[in-house]
């Protein structure tokens, strides 16, 4: 009697991910969308400042985008969990393209509107649209990969994200400097339309089944909140990332450090701004080839602790190149945190709740970025530039101590236990 051959072991190598057409399609969708709104961010900043000449008007750009994002994000998560995700992705990318085109038409003077309020209105629409992009990506991520590929996939996804965050502003600056804001808006619209076409071409993905009865929208959002706040591992990972970014707002203070402490020009600022992203990309590439499985929780705590130490070291440094190396380490530690948190998010979230949980995670992280810049500026005004950064680093170490005690499940986490 012939025995049935054993089931082959699935290929979970990094090369297998790169042969996965659905995953590559999803990464192209992500980087094109990131490039679109990053180019718009650079062009809008220049456009608004040319019109007003007031630094305060630049601060209002962030406010115009963040407030709509926070307001729409919970509802975006609900829609991602209940509607076809590819179609939502196409609509979100179309929204990015339309806002970029509207800004281009306004910059060309083809509309009868004056002032800068139309620019803020377009940016507000961008914030609303962006609230859909990451939940859609995370929901489809779990559809194109097997669970045992999530750790490597999160590493490659982090690389793509950080690459977009580096290339987008650089490309935006080149387009504005060598061309015009109108050209930058047009190119951004092109990237958004490319992203729309790419996500529409994604095949072989099962959409969530349409339920006969949908829970009321606010009850469904509360269900997502209860899930996150009732999961010690997920809440601990999100909180660690939120507080580390909130308290370690070094990047927001780089212009002041360049001018007052390190005594370099704008080219030095560009190098220091790029260093954390380069470090994060290196960490993502390493973890894509060597994914964490055992002791992932301990690795997360160590990475965030090293992040705090790098913040302190940066505050103490008086040498430009030493500061650049420290920021590389800063970015690498943050990259490890992002990959581990993203993997936990994918493995611990039921498929029917991926949109809502991803939106809640976006609110955690989005708020920490914006509030972190405000916190860093406020503390620098209160304590002085260097003491404020050093205090922030020690505060991060304090958060690590609290998390180690209050979230023992996170401290003992092995990712294999979630698979």
Overview of the structural elements:
- The chain has 419 residues and is mainly alpha-helical.
- The chain folds into 2 domains: 14-205, Growth Hormone, Chain: A (Up-down Bundle); 223-419, MFS general substrate transporter like domains (Growth Hormone, Chain: A, Up-down Bundle), CATH 1.20.1250.20.
- 80% of the residues lie in helices and 0% in strands.
- It contains 16 helices and no strands.
- Helix 3 (55-82) runs parallel beside helix 5 (117-144).
- The radius of gyration is 22 Å and the shape is globular.
- The chain starts with 13 loop residues before the first helix and ends in an 8-residue tail after the last helix.
CA radius of gyration is: 22 Å
- How many beta-strand segments? 0
Average predicted confidence as pLDDT? 81
Contiguous helical run count: 16
CATH class of the largest domain: Mainly Alpha
Distance between the termini: 35 Å
The CATH architecture of the largest domain can be named as Up-down Bundle
Shape: globular
The structural domain count equals: 2
Low-confidence stretches: 1-8
Beta-strand fraction estimate: under 5%
Helix share bin: over 70%
CATH topology of the largest domain: Growth Hormone, Chain: A
